[in-house]
Amino acid sequence: MNKWAILSGIEANLAAYEAVIADIKRQGNSVDALYILGDLLGPRPEAEKLVERVLNPRHGELEPLICKGWWEEQCLILHGLGPTGDAPELMAKYGGDTVQMLWECVSRKTVQWLRSLDFGFFELDCLLIHGSTVGVGEELTPETPPIQMLDRLSRMQANNLFCGRSGLTFQYHLQAGSITTALTTLDNQVPPQTVSVVPRQVIGVGNVGRTPGQATYTLYNPGTNQVEFKTVYYGNSKGFQSQRQITKSKSGV
Amino acid sequence: MIIIMLMSLPIITVVAGSSGAGKTTWVCQQMRDIAAVDKIIYYSPGTGTVPIDQNRIATEFPGMQVFGDGQEVEFFNQIPQAEAVYIELGFYLQLEATTQILDNLTYRAVAVLPPDLKDSEYHSWANEVVCGASTQTITAESLWRAASNGQVIDENSLEEFWYEITHGAYGIVTRAKGIFDVNDGRSLYCDFVAGLPQMDFLELNLPRYLEGRPQRFSGLEVVGENLDEATLRQTLSDCCLSDGLILQYQQQVKEILLEGEPV
Amino acid sequence: MKIAVMSCIHGNYEALDAVLLDIDQHSCEKIFCVGDLVGYGPHPNAVVAQIRALDIPTCVGCWDEDIVEGLNACDCSYPSLLAEKRGIQAHEWTNKEINPENREFLANLPHSFKEGNLAFVHGSPHSNHEYLLPQLDAFVALERVISTDADVLFCGHTHVPYARTLDAGQLQVRVGREEKIQEISFTSPLKRIVNVGSVGEPRHGRPNATYVIYDTDIQEVQLREVPYDYHKTCAAIIEKGLPAIFAWRLANGLEYAERADDPTHVCTR
């Protein structure tokens, strides 16, 4: 029974990462792939330590597959390696102190490594990405209109889109749908045809490091299409406990 | 002793005919019936530095001996050892003048001609007339050739360029043929005869060339009226990949082949 | 009210002239343009001057952007090296030919605009390099129209006109979040997506200009094909020193340089 563990938003929170890795270990052999959907970096002093920990899995730990996230893109922009020259979003959302922190805490060597990261992964019929098929900064949430979700899935012809930008855990299941379309060209007229939607879903995989003491991540079984959201409590007050939430998602249920 | 020598000479067939009628095709058909491929000789004078037919035939019959311009002495020397000799005379050669060099030999003269061509110089020359493809023969035709050895042509560009050539963008073209090395290392053969259905590019039976600029023949021959030779040359050049792009494509192909995937 | 919408004139003044005459003969009250006034064709200044003189609301096309920004923004839309080289030649020629006033005009064109429940874009609402082809997934096409908040989306860029209706769109969604399940229903009324073809660089196999007339009262779309003396354009192409192959391609109803056919191709540079 192989499952994927999918994480996002570690945001340089080393303690949170350790807690999640320990929780994954507790799953035993059932987890055979580990994805980190961006934002492993964040404006924390231990950013470099986190990168080192992620890149050096210990005995019995999986080698993570990492793709770029929003924080990674901000780092690249700051170092003049991004698609744009400035980072207005970063400044507006977090202010100058954070920019300073990010600049100081992330080394040039790490930034060079960021350049080699994939934009996302496509495995079986699943797209695993930080933001969306439009960009690293697009936030898909339970409030995103259905037509927009369907567009983002259709761009890569994926049946499952795992994303982490919002930080939320959710399952957005497009169960059914149809549309009638007719076409007229210069030489031809195609009469109205009704097209149906293939059921598909967008899954918010949670966030590991933003909320102190509480990390969320996702376990996915590609064979059964089952999604499990996991919450891990860590830190002095709560100790190492975990709560499980299962959401069955076989079609027809 | 003389009788033994006469009996040991191979059958020599000289093939002539109008452009596009199917001389090379007919020659290939005859060759397929001969078991000992290395005992066949093919010689086509007048192709200069653009020996397209020779190269195409050589890939279809590996081991066969193929000769072109500048190799006449070798060709004559090989005749006694061969089992069958085919000499193809391109439409652009003067029939009378060329056959004078063959006066010392006994050969059968075959003309491959379109069915509605009657009473031509080929008819008075040939022992045998073979019915070929129905092509138009235009009298005021010019011939343009360019060798492109060492060049790699961008395949998508070649398709566009070929479409333009065969649809009259560079003059009224009645015949065109070429052999090109493309991005993924294959060697492609292109053939066009006006009035006949268009043929897809044919992949020649040659190994993929993935080590830089190819060390083998490639080139283009175009026959027609009012040919815009300068633009043909420039456009062919525009289709050629730079060193950097050649390397990039070849690298990609090597990686795909390593993974065992189809290219 | 009847409106005329055109696109992709590409410096072909003869074609534009014929289209404007046709529009006049069909008593259209308003004219709109979705960009690519220049590029490849021999009369970029005359075309821009005419659009300005008639005060035709226009949005910027990818070629217009290239002239303003001084670079070829989307090389990856050329499927072949040959097409790319020809595109570069056309860009360089147009860049030299366009006068400063017309360049300024192009620089100030909006990316899109709306008029009532009608939206106008060059490529798609998301990008000027996205081709909205007729075989695009119907829901994706619907998303494009809905994202403009309009009922009819007019676009160009592909050079082949079509009119598509998207009706009775509906989706059933189930959202699971923190133990709560929510059922969401989405429905959409009739929407249309209309590609207005190309005035100056046809891709439908004939050299005629194409544009669209839309009747806002009865929501009827008419795809118009207008013959014109393309030989004049061909002669001008050669006279002005543009690649002669452009003249041959135009006369044969082919685009000047091949484009990619990828339905949702978006430049990722």
Account of the 3D structure:
The complex is a heterotrimer of chains A (253), B (263) and C (269). Chain A has helices at 14-26, 47-55, 70-78, 88-94, 96-105, 108-115, 146-155, and strands at 3-7, 31-37, 65-67, 120-123, 126-129, 160-163, 169-185, 189-196, 200-205, 214-221, 226-233, 241-247. In chain A, 26% of the residues lie in helices and 32% in strands. With 253 residues, chain A is of the alpha/beta class. Chain A has one domain (3-172, 199-247): Metallo-dependent phosphatases (Purple Acid Phosphatase, chain A, domain 2), CATH 3.60.21. In chain A, strand 7 (169-185) and strand 8 (189-196) form a beta hairpin. In chain A, helix 3 crosses helix 6. Chain B is an alpha/beta fold and 263 residues long. Chain B folds into two domains: 2-131, P-loop containing nucleotide triphosphate hydrolases (Rossmann fold, 3-Layer(aba) Sandwich), CATH 3.40.50.300; 142-258, CobW-like, C-terminal domain (Hypothetical Protein Yjia, Chain: A,domain 2), CATH 3.30.1220. In chain B, 31% of the residues lie in helices and 23% in strands. Chain B contains nine helices and eleven strands. In chain B, the strands form two sheets. Chain B has a six-stranded parallel beta sheet with strand order 3-2-4-1-5-6, sandwiched between helices. The model of chain C is unreliable at 263-269 (pLDDT under 50). The N and C termini of chain C lie far apart (42 Å). Chain C is α/β, with parallel strands linked by helices. In chain C, the strands form two sheets. A six-stranded mixed beta sheet of chain C has the order 3-4-5-8-6-7. Chain C has a four-stranded mixed beta sheet with strand order 2-1-9-10. In chain C, strand 9 (209-215) and strand 10 (220-226) form a beta hairpin. In chain C, helix 7 runs antiparallel to helix 8. Chain C is built from eight helices and ten strands. Chain C has a single domain (2-251), classed as Metallo-dependent phosphatases (Purple Acid Phosphatase, chain A, domain 2, 4-Layer Sandwich). Chain A binds chain C through residues 83, 134, 142, 145-151, 154-155, 168-187, 192, 194-195, 197, 245, 247, 249, and chain C through 126, 134, 137-143, 146-147, 160-179, 182, 184, 186, 188, 204, 210, 221, 223, 225, 264, 269.
